[in-house]
């Protein structure tokens, strides 16, 4: 059974960089697509981007200038960096495994709340 | 990139059928047959219920079905059960390997 677990600071200061880790167990990140998705309080889910097992990345155009997704296959982890955060970036962040690039996410983490506040 | 439009809430009684709509545009739902639906119970991770418009993953009840007409996709749940009470989100491919989600619908089983 594949399991994903998000981890990282729950509080980030405005203008700083939000950094999260997704640790995958029960399966290798050396295949499939690995995405980050977030949900601000009271708002809709928002796809942030993915990293393919080859290292290719794709980002939501609305966040592209601030997002970097990377991976470490030796640790079976992938990462999210979101720079220059504001209060609008406060959200529950999920990591998920995609079987393709068409929205077919079969495994998700439980989500982690990140609050942007001074 | 605009969010897909879903009703904020729907409700039904046990045993009834309900449908949740997901309205997009010609840039997403209307062009691609890649709409997926997710169920999320409070505090839980989202669960894939439908993918590629009308396909069910292994283990998902056949009470759940998906369809599409023009720019609108729908999730239908038949034989409503108490355990179906949850939030439901649609997601559509919009080209260039990008995705857009709906605002979510809260399903209440009366």
Summarize the helices and strands and which ones pair or pack:
The complex is a heterodimer of chains A (118) and B (110).
Chain A: E1 3-7, E2 11-12, E3 18-25, E4 33-39, E5 46-52, E6 57-59, E7 67-72, E8 77-82, E9 91-98, E10 105-108, E11 112-116
Parallel strand pairs in A: 2-11
Antiparallel strand pairs in A: 1-3, 3-8, 4-5, 4-9, 5-6, 7-8, 9-10, 9-11
Chain B: E1 9-12, E2 18-23, E3 35-40, E4 47-50, E5 64-69, E6 72-77, E7 86-93, E8 99-101, E9 105-109
Parallel strand pairs in B: 1-9
Antiparallel strand pairs in B: 2-6, 3-4, 3-7, 5-6, 7-8, 7-9
Name a few traits of the molecule.
heterodimer, A: about 120 residues, mainly beta, about 0% helix, about 50% strand, globular, B: mainly beta, six-stranded mixed sheet, three-stranded antiparallel sheet, 9 strands
Give an overview of the whole structure:
The complex is a heterodimer of chains A (118) and B (110). In chain A, the strands form 2 sheets. In chain A, strands 2, 4, 5, 6, 9, 10 and 11 form a 7-stranded mixed beta sheet that branches. A 4-stranded antiparallel beta sheet of chain A has the order 1-3-8-7, with no helix packed on it. Chain A is built from no helices and 11 strands. Chain A is globular. Chain A is an all-beta fold and 118 residues long. Helix content of chain B is 0%, strand content 44%. Chain B contains no helices and 9 strands. In chain B, the strands form 2 sheets. In chain B, strands 1, 3, 4, 7, 8 and 9 form a 6-stranded mixed beta sheet that branches. A 3-stranded antiparallel beta sheet of chain B has the order 2-6-5, with no helix packed on it. The chains are: A mainly beta (118), B mainly beta (110). The A-B interface holds A 37, 43-47, 50, 58, 60-62, 94, 96, 101-106, 108-111 and B 1, 3, 32, 34-36, 38, 43-48, 51-52, 57, 89, 91-93, 96-104.
């Amino acid at each position: 059974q594949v399991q994903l677990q998000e981890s990282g600071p729950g509080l980030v200061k405005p203008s700083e960089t939000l950094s999260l880790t997704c640790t995958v167990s029960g399966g290798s990140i050396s295949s499939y697509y690995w995405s980050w998705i977030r949900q601000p309080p009271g708002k809709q889910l928002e796809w942030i981007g993915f990293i393919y097992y080859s290292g290719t990345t794709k980002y939501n155009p609305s966040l592209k200038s601030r997002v970097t997704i990377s991976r470490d296959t030796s640790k079976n982890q992938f990462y999210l960096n979101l720079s220059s955060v504001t209060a609008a970036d406060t959200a529950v962040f999920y990591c998920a495994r995609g079987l393709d690039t068409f929205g077919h996410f079969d495994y998700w983490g439980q989500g982690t709340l990140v609050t942007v506040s001074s | 990139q605009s969010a897909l439009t879903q009703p904020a809430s729907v409700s039904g009684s046990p045993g009834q059928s309900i449908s949740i709509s997901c309205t997009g545009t010609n840039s997403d739902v209307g062009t691609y047959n890649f709409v997926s639906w997710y169920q999320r119970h409070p505090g839980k991770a989202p669960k894939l219920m439908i993918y590629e418009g009308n396909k069910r993953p292994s283990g998902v009840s056949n009470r759940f079905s998906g369809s599409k007409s023009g720019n609108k996709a729908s999730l239908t749940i038949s034989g409503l059960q108490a355990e179906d009470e949850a939030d439901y989100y649609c997601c559509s491919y919009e080209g260039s390997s990008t995705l857009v989600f709906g605002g979510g619908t809260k399903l209440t089983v009366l």
